[in-house]
Amino acid sequence: MRAIGQDGFGGPEVLKVVEVERPEPGPAEVLVRVHAAGVNPTDSWHRATGGLAGGAAPIRLGWDVSGVVEAVGLGVTLFRPGDEVFGMPRHPAPAGTYAEYVTSPARHLALKPAALSHAEAAALPLAALTGWQALVDVAGVREGQRVLVHAAAGGVGHLAVQIAKARGAYVIGTAREAKHGFLRELGADEAVDYTQVDFAEAVRDVDVVLDAIGGEYGPRSLRTLRPGGIVVSLASPAEARLSEEAEPLGLRAAFMAVEADHAGMRAIAALAESGRLRPRIEAVLPLELAAQAHESAESGRTTGKIVLAVAD
Length: 312
Description:
Helix content is 27%, strand content 27%. It is of the alpha/beta class.
């Protein structure tokens, strides 16, 4: 089968199409014929450094997948051949979804929403699970709360805005002014141009901040919170330092790393089926243009997600 591989670490140019043996599903696993694979910043980090999994090249990239179950392993009861599924297999261990076939633990997947194409479904898993786990599992966002989403037009951000709105929150997003119209289409109640104003001065009385940027954004975000509020950081494990600053103020801080989650995937599928969660896709490129997809994703100019089309 065709897959995207690399012999060494580096820039997008190290990615190439390779021929590899088609995998077979083990116990409690399914074999998925990949129709589309989402591209995430984590993929680029993994390509350049070995990422969370470490180790030496050659490595195989990709976690987001949408496709059709080709075969099931011993003991699988959730799916059968022909089912359309989507998910984020094995994260943070390598999954290799930039390929024509991939195996996955059955409970790392969910049935694909019928309302979404494979490309749309492949844009969701890692980014939407990150937003869901941060806002719902960690922060417990509920109706009437005020939520600040940084990088709100990005891959995680634009889905987090929709998830927070679906929970009944008042949502404020930071983005360049050119993207404010997009944020309002997503349902954001306010948009802040971080290039023109200091968000820490412009925003007040927030219950939850979702920070996908890191650096000084975490400490500055504490200034926007009301007592009891929380900053959830996705960018770096800085919660120890943030907690030291937050605790005397009656605030909280936490760092979260996304993990495979069958219940979370089903919740995301339900939101998508109801029309309350829809990914914005910047571009769909064929598998052989994976290097170009990474170049575009790393440009900092994309809105939403980039997806690789694998099967027709």
